[in-house]
Amino acid sequence: MLKSNCNNEDPFRAGRRQFLGYTGAGMLATLLPGCGSHDDNASPYPQTIAMGQQMIQQTVSNSAQPVAGISVAMLKGSSVVWQQAFGVSSVPSQTTATTQTRFNIGSVSKLFAALAATILQDRGLITLDTPIVRYLPTFTMLSPEYTQITTRHLLSHSSGLPGTNGRNLFTFAPVPGYAADTQAELANTHLKHLPGELAVYCNDGFTMVEQLVLAMTGQSFASFVETAILAPCKMTNSSYLTSVPASGSFSYPYAKGVQYQEFVNAYATGGLSSTPGDMMNLAQMILGGGVFQGQRVVSAAGIAQMGTDQSTGLLINPSPEWRSGLGWDSVQQPALAAAGVLGWEKDGGTAFYTSEFFVVPQAQFALMVTGNSGYDARALAETLVLSALKEDGTIATLPAKISSTAPPAASGPSIVNAGGIYGNSDSPLQVIANPDGSVQLNQWTASTHAWTQIGAYQYRSDGWYWSNTDAASYRFTVVSGTDGSGKAFSYRYLMKRVVPGAGYAFLTLALGQQLAPLVPLDTAWQQRVGTQWTLTNDSPTAVPIVILGNPPALLTTLAELPGYVLYGNEDLRYQLFVPLSDDRGGMSVKVPGNFGRDLYEIRFAPANSATTLTLGSSIYATA
Q1: Predicted pLDDT at 320
Q2: Cα angle at 79 between 74 and 83, to 5 degrees?
Q3: Residue 523 carries which DSSP code?
Q4: Over the stretch 176-219, which tens digit does the pLDDT of each residue have?
Q5: Alpha helices, DSSP H only, in 231-368?
């Protein structure tokens, strides 16, 4: 979506609660290369396929950072013109990956949630713009505006739900009940923004679609998608891993010398296991306006709605490239837009896999690539899609790549008011506005409990701050207005501009929101400063428990920003909280895009002569 491709790689590190949105969000596995298999088909894209084979084979064979397996498929019209798997599905046994090998496709799964909701609308069971409390009366939150949330808000990342329930999200054994657990936790938290106010990548919204489907059909989400979408699209190698599979060929993560099977228990937001070949069936249905091989799966109007830009009515949207659809990350894919072509894109990342799915309606073309994390799926996909469009004559030439050379220095605006601390969902940033008009950016570092310099930047003629050693550039944007409750607002954002993927288009992201100091912490909060907390209620098979060893989280403060508490660890990342009471801390920022995702409230409660800290539905005890 939003993510960049709204796809963009997090320029800093990402914990588990940030995996389900953007490609390549962290590699936890150490993987080994293998060999490939190839299904031969006559193809109108011999040059593109040859290039793709070379690129992928180099990736799985890279001695510096090998990727165990990658699988790809390409569609033109109603024909799969390329389908091939590379590397291995199992590192210990060196089992060759085939086109039948299933990979966890992460947030590409969100398209199935959007399709499920659209099918419910086709059947007259819901409308996308009716508040979901009408269909799901058990849904409640602490903010009264929760009653305004619609299914469209859920599917366009604009609901205001906190972000991602991290408890038992990724595990090495199936853990049922994730969606119900998420709904129960939402009843104990506030919205992070008003519904429809801004769009910030939000997995919880898609998880609530699971509950909506169950309430309206009596079927579990996985069962509904199987009967309403997978079966009519003949996606026989696709399923939700609700239990340990008894059959089928799968790609297996390999970490710390052990082979696992990854389970994504958030089914609607990221839980489908599939193959690129099966995804070409889905692409045919989409390109056919909802019809696959003569059978209507969803209405043409529903497919068109999914591909319609949902960002036009947002109050806060400082990133003009952010044009998400319903389920789609981008309905005006930036690299394709640079070539004058409309394209739809959805990416996906789990703890161990990275995927990209492109559909180009004008060219009746689609591409899916998926594989073990550790490769740049977006760069690969953009390169192959644009090459194919040039090869079939859809475009005459490739678009020009964006220059990474900094433009000349220029006299910039006053930035005296831009200095200070900026909060986000990753780790606080410090902006120092120097007297000469330059800017120094620092990031808070957990290992040292101090600021680490990112770089020093000078204003340039294009209106952005650059350094000579960083390909990214920065600037400040103030967004002001009146929100839906009639309250005036004004937020200053630190914006970051990057050139992700194959390098054909800029992507602008709000990196952080400037925060003003508050009154000093009261005694109850001051007594917690310096305490550490350990997660107690995740499954012992949860990926962070097994791989990261359940690191403790730290509660501390920033001397430069009185009145806030900083909490997190390498898994959660580090967020600034505003005390709401002596036993509750609230979310402090409204950052659209990807750096305001996965926010939380923290709650403290006595328990057996001790104290527990609850963050989302995760419970921590003092370490």
Answers
A1: 81
A2: 35
A3: H
A4: 999 999 999 999 999 999 999 999 999 999 999 999 999 999 99
A5: 267-270, 276-287, 300-306, 334-338
Stated as kind and residue range, the H or E segment containing 585 is: strand 584-587
What are φ and ψ of residue 358, in 5° steps? -120, 140
Residues 6+ apart with CB under 8 A from 79: 41
| Spans of all domains in the chain | 416-515, 523-622
DSSP letters for 205-241:
HHHHHHHHHHHHHSS-HHHHHIIIIITTTT-TT-EE-
Predicted pLDDT of residue 607: 87
What letters, b where the CB count within 10 A reaches 16 and e where it falls short, cover 438-471?
Answer: bbbbbbbebeeeebeebbbbbbbeeebbbbeebe
Can you point out the beta strands (E) in 419-506? 420-423, 429-433, 439-445, 450-459, 465-466, 473-482, 488-498
Q: How far apart are CA 510 and CA 594, in angstroms?
A: 8
Mean pLDDT for all residues in the chain:
92
- Confidence tier at 37 by pLDDT (50, 70, 90): very low
Q: Tell me the C-alpha distance between 492 and 135, whole Å.
A: 37
* CA 601 – CA 585 distance, rounded (Å): 6
DSSP 17: G
- Residues 6 or more apart whose Cβ sits within 8 Å of residue 435: none
The neighbour count for residue 64, using CB atoms within 10 Å, is 4
Distances (CA, A) of 118 to 307, 329, 408: 12, 17, 50
Please report, for residues 26, 107, 400, 493, 597, the alpha-carbon distance to residue 461 in angstroms, rounded to integers and kept in the order given.
Answer: 35, 38, 20, 20, 32
pLDDT tens figures, 289-318: 999 999 999 999 999 999 999 999 999 999
Longest dimension (CA), the chain: 73
Q: Tell me the C-alpha distance between 235 and 592, whole Å.
A: 35
Q: What is the pLDDT of residue 167?
A: 96
Residue 7 CB burial class (10 angstroms; 0-12, 13-18, ≥19): buried
CA–CA dist 534, 212 (Å, integer): 33
3 state DSSP class of 611: strand
pLDDT at residue number 608: 85
Specify the pLDDT at position 621.
96
Extract the tokens encoding 464. 């952005």
For residue 583, give every residue at least 6 positions away whose Cβ sits within 8 Å of its Cβ, in sequence order, or none.
524, 603, 604, 605
pLDDT tens, position by position, 426-476: 999 999 999 999 999 999 998 899 999 999 999 999 999 999 889 999 999
**pLDDT tens sequence across 366-395:** 999 999 999 999 999 999 999 999 999 999
